[in-house]
Amino acid sequence: MDDKISQLPDDLLLKVLTFLPTKVAVSTSILSKRWEFLWMWLPKLEYDDSEYSPGERYKLYSFIDLSLPLHKAPVIERLRLNFDVYGRSYRAYSIEKLVLIAVTRCVRELSVTLVSMPYKFARLPSNLFTCKSLVILELTGPIFVNVPRMVYLPSLKFLILGCMVYSNEKSLHQLLSHCPVLEDLVLERNDEDNNSPFTLSVIVPSLQRLTLKISRGYHFEGLVINTPSLMYFKILDYLEEYARDDNSNYSYYFEDTPKLEEADIESTYPDINKFVRSIRSVKRLSLCIRVNADEEALYHEGIVFDQLQHLKLCSCGPNWSKLLVRLLKDSPLLRDLEIYLNEDHTSSRVDAPVSWQNQLDCVPTCLLASLETFKWTVVYVDHKKR
């Protein structure tokens, strides 16, 4: 192939290939001898089997198994594997082998997303948990996590853990406690992650952003959060239908977060006193919570949101208006207020009349001095379709 592009230096051609999807970059190997192995020096590899037909997936898996061990790049900056595996088309141990290769090549970003896995869970090599180069790690799907006794991830800043199976209750805590510079954590846990009772603990002094998605069932006993550097907190916490007749409360401990600026809380039957005490410093707050009907106090007197400027409150709960009154009284600097209804909660909404009679002994300070915008989104629900 005698053209000007092929005359360019390898470094420049490789730079061009990095802007192409891996599938396209690999296809350039058929252009000529000049291009045949050039793609094998790529520092970033992404394989997504959703781009292939069911009949082509087996060829893709075989290609990855054969080519990755022979890859020539001394450093693999990024490896992303997104597999919707099924049947007998892929072997669980292949995932462990591919991750091992990436770790030995000083991988900086590793993402493994599995939708399904036949017969066995995918496992991870033990040296992943001592990888000095790893900055971003994402693991999602049927992956068995057995954290070894020797753990140290000195460069890890971003960690995403989807619904996986942990070898024991201490595995997650063991992992998080040995990530000294971790800044961003996204964690999803459900009742199937463990076959025995467990408490979810997030104790990370360096953490700045925390996103939790929790599905509570019979095995989930509690939540412990100790993150003094936290600036952003989001939690989606709900109780499984099958467990609602058993109990609606769980042990909850949330250490004060003096640096917290934004919180987004969606929870079924939370311990609102503990939540509120821990988020008093927020400037932006979004709440969608179900407060027990017999809970008059909502949260203890004397708590003031003296930095809160933006408030969003979902109106799906029966006591949402009582909570709104308390928040207005306790937020003297509030500027923006939005009342909305979560679309997922329209069927469970209790259409109780809003009455503030005898709830307001005086006009809240924010209504007189600071409030600038008020938005109320009304969603009309067809009760006949319930």
UniProtKB/TrEMBL annotation:
Taxonomic lineage of the native organism: Eukaryota, Viridiplantae, Streptophyta, Embryophyta, Tracheophyta
Entry-linked Gene3D superfamilies: Ribonuclease Inhibitor
SUPFAM superfamilies: F-box domain, RNI-like
Entry superkingdom: Eukaryota
Pfam families: F-box, LRR_At5g56370
Name used for this protein in its record: F-box domain-containing protein
Domain F-box: 2-38
Family annotation (InterPro entries): F-box-like_dom_sf, F-box_AtFBL13-like, F-box_dom, FBL13/AtMIF1-like, LRR_dom_sf, LRR_FXL15/At3g58940/PEG3-like
